[in-house]
Sequence to fold (260 residues):
Amino acid sequence: MTIPEARTDADGALPHAVRKVEEASALSAHRFQYYDFMMAAFVAVLICSNLIGAAKLVQFAEWEVFGWQVGVFGAGILFFPLSYVLGDVLTEVYGYARARRVVWAGFAAVLFMAFMTWAVVAMPPAPGWGGQEAYKEVFGLTPRIVLASVVAFWAGELSNAFVMARMKVWSRGKHLWQRTIGSTVVGQGVDSLLFYPVAFLGVWTTSQVLTVLVTNYFLKVLWEAILTPVTYKVVAMLKRAEGVDVYDSETEFTPFSIRS
Fold:
């Protein structure tokens, strides 16, 4: 069911040419211009942040709070939160079902990345090539890191999309900033609580795991808050370009589906 919408304001209201869509399935025949590009961007950020930045600890400052070195955090923090920003945009513009489909695409991409890195590292190096140990050190993902990454990503992103979609219905589309930050608080919380203990407990000290978990969590939420103006602009641009604004009033919120 689609309802013409002509209201405009500075807090997430719809541009004149945008239709409010109460049931996402009503858009099954709608041709989206930028959905595929958003999916590609989401998967690219996800792969890069997991492959390059997940296992490296960095320290830019020697800040200590209650004995914790809070200046220490995982390098992936600089990029992984962008996947949550993109997830917020996808849910806000295209609805939960299409955001869920993108999450499953990312899930499959991470699994393929893990298989490919394992296979390439396991291949015997050519005689005279001395980079095998360094290559293994950088790209040799352990099974527990892969498990932690996949499970935490899947649970965190779907939690983020669910909270975002439900808050949009409850707020009747107002106060976008509350939805983006609120959903990130939940989604990143689920992600961090699953990923760091499963991936690094017993490898890093317990203190390091807790420090990086807490520090990364707050930095991710802070990133989301800082990027809120960008999120507003991207959401407005996409709603105007696509001509629709989806409300998940009739959506089935099962995570175990790829139907859009």
In short: The first strand starts at residue 2 and ends at 4.
